[in-house]
Each structure stands twice: as structure tokens, then as C-alpha cells.
Specification:
This protein is of the alpha+beta class. It has 1 helix and 9 strands; from the N terminus they run H-E-E-E-E-E-E-E-E-E.
Length: about 180
């Protein structure tokens, strides 16, 4: 079967548009996760190894304060439509994978993305201190180009019962509401 030059050019143009849209969406997703949901922009995500926090942590295996544990949800408005976030915080010690995140949303031309991340507890929090989370890793990415590892973040419980996940020093954060 032969394709006409016009059909080939059209296919190439569509492929370029999809690649540009996906790249722009990934950039916006990773660098502007919280824009529009509150006063600060938002951080990146987290993967899958040892998501139950039963690893070889070097600190007490119950280092995460109980009020942080559970499932939290958030959303990010965007030009292509809203994106959802489902954050799960599990018990564990330093080095254990205590955070998992599912990020889903629209891409250009009607496509969607689905990213799953995990991240370890970076340090045992002191009383009243944020919970520090290490860099995240991608465990599932569809399409893979839409999902990138994230920076270290801090979790802070706010007076209204919500949870803020922030990238220290960047001003990026996203607010989550407890769902369980």
C-alpha cells in the first residue's frame, strides 16, 4: 500500500503535535502541580518498591506520625482539564517507601496520562516538624514520557485538617484533603 505525500505529512504533523502537547503537559504537571488550587504552585510525585513500609529502614519502623497516615486527594486545574492526585501515606522508618501517589489527567488531543510514584521517608520528624520525604521514583507511567521522578518534599498538617505537600525552597505546594 502506498500513502500519498499529503497523508504522510498529515501523520507527521499529528505525531509532532502529540509529542509537543505531551511534553508541555509533562512540564506543567511536574513544575506547576498546585497552581490554581491554593496560593502556591505544586511539587512532583513518587513509585512502588516496598509500598507497605516494611523495608530495612535505619530508624524506628513507626516514624510517621499517625495523623499523616491514610489516603489524601487533591486536584490541579489545567488548560486541558483537571488532573487528580491520590496520595497514600503509610507507616515506616527512615528509608522505607512511605508515600505513594497516583496522578491522572488529560493531555493534548484528548489523550490522558496515568503516573504512579513512591518515595521514602527521608528523616524521622521531630515534634511539630514536617515529615520529610525523599525523591520519588516512577513505578508506572502511561505514557512513560508523561511521568518523571520528583524532588524531595515535606508534608505538613494544616490547622483545617488538610495536608500540604511542598518542595522546600521552591514555593511549590499542593493541598490534599483526607479521604479515609
Amino acid at each position: 500500500m502506498r500513502r500519498s505525500a499529503g497523508a504522510t505529512v498529515a501523520l507527521v504533523a499529528v505525531a509532532i503535535a502529540v509529542a509537543i502537547g505531551a511534553g508541555g503537559s509533562v512540564y506543567a504537571f511536574m513544575n506547576n502541580e498546585g497552581r490554581g488550587t491554593h496560593t502556591n504552585p505544586g511539587p512532583s510525585a513518587s513509585g512502588d518498591d516496598n509500598v507497605n513500609g516494611n523495608g530495612s529502614g535505619t530508624d524506628d519502623e513507626s516514624a510517621v506520625p499517625a495523623d499523616y497516615l491514610g489516603t489524601w486527594t487533591g486536584s490541579i486545574p489545567g488548560d486541558q482539564g483537571g488532573s487528580s492526585r491520590k496520595l497514600v501515606i503509610r507507616q515506616g522508618g527512615v528509608g522505607d517507601q512511605v508515600l505513594s501517589l497516583i496522578a491522572e489527567g488529560p493531555l493534548a488531543l484528548g489523550a490522558t496520562y496515568h503516573c504512579e510514584f513512591t518515595a521514602p521517608l527521608a528523616a524521622r520528624p521531630g515534634d511539630g516538624e514536617p515529615v520529610r520525604i525523599g525523591p520519588s521514583t516512577v513505578s508506572v507511567g502511561r505514557p512513560a514520557a508523561s511521568c518523571s521522578p520528583g524532588k524531595p518534599t515535606e508534608l505538613t498538617l494544616l490547622p483545617d485538617g488538610t495536608l500540604r505537600r511542598a518542595a522546600p525552597g521552591s514555593g511549590e505546594s499542593l493541598i490534599y484533603t483526607k479521604s479515609d
